[in-house]
Amino acid sequence: MVGENTQSKFDLELEKIGITLNERQKQQFDKYYEMLVEWNKVMNLTGITEYDEVNLKHFTDSLTIARTQEMQKVQSVIDIGTGAGFPGIPLKIAFPHLKVVLLDSLNKRIKFLEAVIEELGLENISTIHGRAEDFAKKKEYREQFDLCVSRAVANLSTLSEYCLPFVAVNGSFVSYKSGDSEEEIHQAKHAISLLGGKVKNVDKFQLPGTDMGRALVEIKKTKQTPGKYPRKAGLPAKEPLK
């Protein structure tokens, strides 16, 4: 059983970013943690399994977006390359009003995510199994979301080509990056512009209670993404837009 002190440490870090959880939400995070550790024994979901560390480096980190986004005004979110559900599931737990779609290319991760959604009793959240390049061409997903998020490890030019086609004009794509990403952001600016976006804000900070430098790169969608993007599956990673 999780001790009170441990729990309040998580509460404290979330308070710093303006988030207060009720008892149900705390229980959902604890259950999510238990499932993550359990399933991690048979498949690779995370290298971090210690309770406090998961709370900080996965859950709190996922929710740091509340530093710059008014999440109560956001209605729909898609999480590209969600992996074990970060940041999409923590966002759904903390902001239950959100309509969330989780996309991942690995089917066994999708099975894990669906088990979490069911166990936590989350509603208005769905998973899609496949590649961003394919789903971004489908009209039920293309330019349908207020916010696209990704904690996936990829070059920002590549990620922008995956993500911006999902974002409605005037919506945002927020990429979770490490603290030293200036060069990468600079190099991606032309690609972002081609895709209909503009770097609006780079929020740099230290993840509370760690020595991890983080950067949230907010890209505003200013116009529609040209129909030829994203290019066919595999190309955005192999040949990032210059």
TrEMBL record:
NCBIfam families tied to this protein: rsmG_gidB
Full protein name: Ribosomal RNA small subunit methyltransferase G
Enzyme category, top tier: transferase
Claim: Methyltransferase is one of the keywords in the record: yes
EC number: 2.1.1.-
A Gene Ontology molecular function term of the record: rRNA (guanine-N7-)-methyltransferase activity
Biological role stated in the UniProt entry: Specifically methylates the N7 position of a guanine in 16S rRNA.
Region (Disordered): 219-242
Species this protein is from: Mediterraneibacter faecis
Entry keyword annotation includes Transferase: yes
Family note: Belongs to the methyltransferase superfamily. RNA methyltransferase RsmG family.
UniProt keywords, alphabetically: Cytoplasm, Methyltransferase, rRNA processing, S-adenosyl-L-methionine, Transferase
Binding site for S-adenosyl-L-methionine: G81, F86, A132, E133, R151
GO annotations of cellular component type: cytosol
Stored Pfam families: GidB
HAMAP family on file: 16SrRNA_methyltr_G
Matching SUPFAM superfamilies: S-adenosyl-L-methionine-dependent methyltransferases
Compartments reported by the entry: Cytoplasm
